[in-house]
Write a structure and sequence with these properties.
This protein has about 575 residues and is of the alpha/beta class. It contains 18 helices and 20 strands. It binds adenosine-5'-triphosphate and magnesium ion. Magnesium ion (MG) binds next to helix 10. Magnesium ion binds near residues 311, 314, 315, 384 and 388.
Length: about 575
């Protein structure tokens, strides 16, 4: 029998020449805690050493077989010269769903266990050449077609004159799933942190942009302006508007937009957007929609759903420079506990799913892992801000949904969005009516801790005839309200302020001035709204930066409501 040599390769893996099987059995038995009889303990036996050795050998053979049978890892024995399977243990048969007869006598690549036949043959040749092989992640396919990820260690040794390969196979499917779930959770935390940052920045920018845009509006209307000055003001206004759009998208990403969710038929939203998209997409792009006739209702802001569709469709168009097809498919899907566990953060439940697919260039895995991050773009400088998908991500999340991407380079991309399904009928959407620009003579309490913005708002209101009591401090605002002798039908207040927040101020005022209506202004939705106090009506919120006309219309609209709206049943969803 050949002696074994166990060297260690530079990479740390043992390099083995054919090891005698008895030595290997002995090693296994010792490792498993079986004690073999000490060599010196045979003195009392009348039997010859030869018979005792035969006994030892038989016993160790039985034990070895038992280990093979009860092992909780798969063990596969191959003929080292042909690659044919010579034995397989019950664990592996159970794992892969094959019987002993179906496996023994076949080569690995004949059975269809390994999808990649060429790779399987190459691995076998490597084993033959090196007497050792380790494969950390082999995707096998069970007889039932299920994918099983395994880790394989193959050793070549000599078994009674025959060279065999023993493959120890460990099922790592659960470990892989856990790793994937961990990756998804880490990604979710990263997005959360970036969202916080983006939301904070957007908040401060909104106040600044409000002042820039507001004074541009006032200046632009002055009759004494020279033409060049008017043009310069228009340029400042344009730049400010671009900034406003950017901040809006950042806010959408950080899920701090003020949404106006309604019960919505997603099919209707798709049909409405398809009309617009057909004009935008160009002749070489075909748009197909396959809409489920009994689709459940979702709760979302219609204008935001339009945004989602527009962004996805425009990205799809850009990914198909030579043309192609975009398909939008809607369906109902139910997700059970088991599926939800595999795809965090999806929870089990009933969903309405919208899939937007294209036949474009696709994306590699690295690109896919960044696409929802703000400012990530692979487009040429100046062609993309990298905020399209971040906006989509934020809108979907704020609406209680989830989004996933499936893409292959050269084979197109598919986005799947799932919204929670509700059983109520969709609301009938009324077309927006244009409210005339009208002022009034009422007295308005104005509270905002940003001085320049408060002065500007005051100027807007006074231009339209209102009397304004203004303060940058909520405590002082309460005193002003108490001291004001006449009626005070409206308060316009910022949401986040030092001292009392806007909603807290409104609560305090409600006891002394029950008639007061409240118009909240905010650059973003504040935590205060989501926690305890919500504005009373969907018309009682104005997103910063607002234009003079938006403000004046909203003010008149509120003042004209005969009964103050009940503040607590809001239809504005704020903060996600
Ligand atoms: N359907 C798609 N096919 C291939 N790649 C896509 C697709 N959709 C998005 N991407 C990739 O994701 C990146 C980010 O998309 P996102 O919409 O956020 O930004 P953008 O399109 O580059 O710029 P913006 O939308 O702000 O104009 C894109 O630059 C592109 O690389
Ligand atoms: Mg885009």
């Amino acid at each position: 029998m050949k002696e074994s040599t166990n060297n260690v390769r530079p990479n740390g893996s043992p390099e083995q020449s054919a090891v005698p099987v008895e030595r290997l059995q002995q090693q296994i038995l010792c490792a498993e805690g079986f004690r073999s009889r000490p060599p010196g303990n045979r003195g009392n036996s009348r039997r010859s050493d030869g018979a005792a050795m035969a006994d030892d050998l038989r016993n160790s053979g039985v034990r070895y077989r038992r280990l093979f049978e009860v092992a909780q890892d798969g063990i596969l024995m191959l003929d080292a010269s042909t690659g044919l399977i010579t034995d397989v243990n019950p664990f592996l048969m159970h794992l892969l769903g094959y019987s002993h007869e179906e496996l023994v006598g076949k080569a690995l690549w004949e059975i269809g266990l390994l999808k990649d036949i060429a790779a399987a043959k190459a691995a076998f040749q490597e084993l033959q050449a090196n007497n050792y092989g380790r494969y950390d992640n082999l995707p096998l396919k069970s007889k039932g077609g299920l994918s099983v990820n395994v880790e394989v260690v193959g050793n070549v040794y000599n078994d009674n004159g025959e060279t065999v390969i023993q493959c120890n196979i460990r099922d790592i499917t659960q470990r892989k799933h856990a790793e994937k779930s961990g990756q998804r959770l880490r990604q979710a935390h990263k997005m959360e942190a970036v969202g916080q940052l983006a939301g904070g920045l957007a908040h401060d920018f909104n106040n600044l942009l409000g002042v820039i845009l507001g004074y541009c509006e006032i200046l632009g209307e002055r009759p004494d302006l020279t033409e060049p000055a008017r043009k310069m003001i228009a340029e400042i206004h344009n730049a400010g508007t671009t900034g406003k759009n950017l901040t809006q998208r950042l806010l959408a990403f950080s899920r701090r937009q003020a949404l106006k969710p309604v019960l919505l038929d997603l099919n209707e939203a798709v049909n409405r957007t398809v009309v617009m998209l057909n004009r935008l997409l160009g002749d070489n792009v075909t748009l197909v929609s396959v809409l489920n006739g009994s689709l459940g209702t979702i709760e979302a802001d219609p204008s935001q759903i339009d945004q989602v569709l527009m962004n996805l469709a425009i990205n799809a168009r850009d990914a198909m420079p030579k043309g192609g097809t975009i398909s939008i498919i809607t369906s109902n899907v139910d997700i059970d506990e088991a599926s939800a566990a595999l795809y965090p953060p999806i929870s089990p439940g009933r969903y309405v799913m919208m899939t937007v697919s294209d036949t474009g260039i696709g994306m590699n895995l690295d690109t896919q892992s960044h696409i929802f991050e703000p400012f990530f773009s692979t487009k040429a400088p100046g062609s993309g801000t990298g905020l399209g998908l971040s906006t989509v991500f934020g809108i979907v999340k704020q609406s209680g949904g989830t989004i996933g991407v499936y893409s292959e380079l050269g084979h197109g991309t598919s986005f799947r969005i799932r919204f929670p399904r509700c059983d109520r009928a969709p609301a009938v959407l009324q077309p927006a009516t244009e409210i005339p620009l009208r002022g009034g003579s009422e007295t308005i309490l104005l509270v905002d801790d940003s001085n320049p913005l408060r002065q500007l708002t005051r100027m807007f209101l006074e231009t339209f005839g209102y009397t304004v009591l203004d303060s940058g401090d909520s405590g002082e605002a309460l005193r002003m309200a108490a001291e004001h002798p006449g009626p005070l039908p409206l308060m316009i207040t910022d949401v986040v302020m030092p001292g009392f927040s806007g909603p807290m101020l409104a609560e305090k005022l409600a006891s002394t001035r029950p008639e007061i209506r409240v118009l909240y202004t905010s650059g973003y939705t504040a935590e205060e709204f989501s926690q305890d106090v919500s504005p009373g009506d969907d018309s009682a919120f104005l997103t910063k930066p607002f234009s003079r006309d938006d403000l004046v219309r909203k003010v008149r609209e509120l003042l004209d409501v005969p009964v103050p709206p009940a503040r607590r049943d809001s239809s504005v969803r704020l903060a996600g």
